[in-house]
Every structure is written in C-alpha cells, then in structure tokens.
Amino acid sequence: MPLTNGTFFKPSIFTLVGIPGLESVQHWIGIPFFISFILAIIGNGLLLTIIRTERSLHEPMYIFLAVLAATDLGLTLCITPKMLAIFWLQSREIHFESCLIQMYFTHTFQCMESGTLLAMAFDRYVAICDPLRHAAVLTKRVLVIIIMVVTIRASVIIIMCPLLIKLRLKYFRTTLISHSYCEHMAVVKLAAENVKANKAYGLFVAFSVLGFDVIFIFLSYAFIFRAVFKLPQKETRLKAFNTCTAHIFVFLQFYILTFFTSFIHRFGLSVAPYVHILLSNLYLLVPPLLNPIVYGVKTKQIREGVIKRFTPEN
Asked: Is residue 273 a contact partner of residue 21, using CB atoms and an 8 Å limit?
C-alpha cells in the first residue's frame, strides 16, 4: 500500500470499521443481525419455493413477488456475511476490487427492489382499475419484458458508481471505511481528489431511480384509491383495498427507510455516526426480513401454500 506525498494512500486493501463508536459491543449487535439473516433466508427461500411449485400462484402478482424475494435474498447475502465476519471474527479487510464488487451488487439489488415495487404497483393498478383487461395487459411476454427492464436498468445505471471510483479516484486520505459494507458515498468521501462527478452521479441515480419510482408508485395508488372509493358496495371496497395493504406496507417501510437514511447521510452532520450506520444496516436488512412475513400473513394463497408444505399428507 504505497504512500504518496507522505499523506495520501493508493490502497489495494480497505478496512471496514463496522459500526463506528460501537466497536466494543459489535459482537452483541451481530446476534440480532444473524437471526434476521437466517429468518430472511428461510422466509424468502420458502416464498420462492411455494410460488414456483404452486401452479395457482403463477400469476403476475406472485411472479413479481418471487422476483422481490430473489432480490431480497441477493441483497442480504451480499452484505450480511461480511458484516458478521467484521462483528464476530474481526475480519475487517477487504480488497479494493472486492469492495467495488460488493458496492455494485448492493446498490443494484436496491435498485431492482425499487423497480419491482413499481411493477407490483402497476399490477395492482391494472387489476383494480381495469380488471377485465388484466390478463390481456399483463401477459407472460409483458411480464418477462418488465422483469428484464427492471434488471437491466439497475445493472446499467449502477455500474457507473464503482467504475467512476475505479477510473477517477486513485488517492485516498485514509483506508478506513466507517461503515460495515462498501457503500458508495462512504468510499467516495475518503478520496483525496475531486469527487464532484462521483457525488453528482450518486444524486442522479437517487433521483432518476428512487424519485421516478416513488412518483409513479404514488400515482398508481392514487388512481387505485379513487377507483376503490367509487365501488358501490362497502364489502367490495374493503376486499379491493385489502389486496393492496401488503404492497402499501412494503412500499412505505422501504422508501421511508431509504429517504431517512439518505437524508441523514447527506445532511445530518450532527447525527452520531453509529446512528447513521445502524440505520443504513437496518435499511438493507429489514425489508428482506419483513417482506415474506407481510405477504405470508396478508396473502391467503401463500398462507395455504405454507400450511400445505408443512402439513403431512394422510
């Protein structure tokens, strides 16, 4: 790791601090993180298995839910093992290229989750506002195209984040990353060079992906609520609204955590670093844990699939 001008580093290895300020109790913090990791793996894995094996669940809503479960699995597998290695094994070092790879996949899965939530909102919009054309609009071909667009958009738009770091930033003030995973801005802030392009691209990604998705999800549910309240019978309105409650809860918990974390990261200078890092970790670990639970509780077909899987046949 050669030293340049006596002050700046050109690192081949970074060191992840974990949760700055809480290093002495990180081994205890790792316990609930490990439990949430195991539950997320089991819950999303079970969700994928049930949707794949139950032919009655081969519908657009459940196919999008399977994509969401796969994305959540990828996200939690991307960051949690290394995080637990930091907390329990003091394995803090990460190669520069490995750091960029982790950064790419972490943010790509985040972007895919946002796009999948938008696709699910569109599915609910068509199902409630134009139910007679739902099967004609969301054909298998359209589903494949939507999933491909969500995946390609995330893969292409995020690739520039690590590439800009790799190509533009050679020297860093320190090799200590005050985080428990390689997050884009946490690495960019260490650079001893001009990072305006990196910060600008990060903001572009945030507004072009999350901002775009939030606006269209909000519009979808606005149209849904307008259509629901126009239904003549109260029971029909409640049934239609009930089909959206799980989506609304998942949408709210994902984006509230996203914007709160981003706000603190960029403007919360007076907030203790450990608060920001804990929120960043929760932002990535809570959705994979809660999503299968929410859909399992609220969706009758999934509940029946779980019961069927764990009930011995006579």
From this structure: yes
DSSP 242-311: HHHHHHHHHHHHHHHHHHHHHHHHHH-TTS-HHHHHHHHHHHHHHHHHHHHHHHHHH-HHHHHHHHHHHS
User: Residue 254 corresponds to which tokens in the numbers above?
Assistant: 């994902």
Mean pLDDT score across all residues of the chain: 84
Backbone angles phi, psi at 13, to 5 degrees: -135, 135
pLDDT digits (tens, 9 = 90+) for 178-223: 889 998 888 998 988 888 999 899 888 888 888 888 899 889 888 8
Residue located via tokens 């068509």:
126
Only one residue has tokens 């958009």, namely 153
Confidence of residue 229 (pLDDT cuts 50, 70, 90): confident
The phi, psi pair for 175, rounded to 5°, reads: -105, 5
The DSSP code for 171 is -
Mean pLDDT, range 15-20, rounded to an integer? 89
- Return d(Cα 241, Cα 300) in angstroms, integer: 15
Q: Within 13 Å, how many C-alpha atoms sit on residue 313's CB side? A: 1
